[in-house]
């Protein structure tokens, strides 16, 4: 099993609306991307200065599945929007 985690910090302009739209777009990938086994998206409530705004935790059977997700047209639509509204993102990929 391969786990893919991404943390996002959003730009201030339309921040709450953009977080919600990104969350909905990412959750909407379930059922559209065959290699995506699970998707959990969460919006941060921590007031800490080091906190990010949103995270996703996704699971795939293997690295190839993660690659298929990364290049899937529906995922790329979400990535295009998210890149336009985030100021920073971090990623962790690991095998479980």
Description:
Helices cover 36% and strands 33% of the residues. It is α+β, with helices and mostly antiparallel strands and 96 residues long. The chain has a single domain, classed as Alpha-Beta Plaits (2-Layer Sandwich), CATH 3.30.70. It has a four-stranded antiparallel β-sheet with strand order 2-3-1-4. The radius of gyration is 13 Å and the shape is globular. The mean pLDDT is 98.
At CATH level 2, the architecture is 2-Layer Sandwich
The number of strands is 4
Calculate the mean pLDDT score and round it: 98
- H/E series, N to C? EHEEHHE
* Number of helical regions: 3
Biggest beta sheet summary: 4 strands, antiparallel
Residues in β-strands, percent: 25-35%
Q: Which outline best applies?
A: globular
Q: Gyration radius, to the nearest Å?
A: 13 Å
- Briefly note the CATH topology name: Alpha-Beta Plaits
Question: How many separate domains make up the residues?
Answer: 1
Task: State the separation between the terminal residues, measured CA to CA.
Answer: 5 Å
- Order the strands across the largest sheet as they lie in space: 2-3-1-4
**CATH class wording:** Alpha Beta
Estimated structural class: alpha+beta
């Amino acid at each position: 099993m391969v786990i893919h985690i991404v943390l996002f910090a959003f730009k201030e302009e339309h921040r709450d609306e953009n977080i919600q739209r990104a969350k909905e777009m990412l959750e909407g990938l379930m059922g559209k991307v065959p290699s995506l086994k699970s998707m959990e998206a969460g919006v941060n409530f921590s007031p800490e200065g080091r906190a990010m705004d949103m995270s996703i935790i996704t699971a795939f059977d293997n690295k190839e599945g993660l690659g298929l997700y990364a290049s899937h047209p529906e995922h790329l639509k979400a990535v295009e929007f998210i890149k336009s509204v985030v100021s920073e993102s971090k990623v962790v990929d690991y095998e479980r």
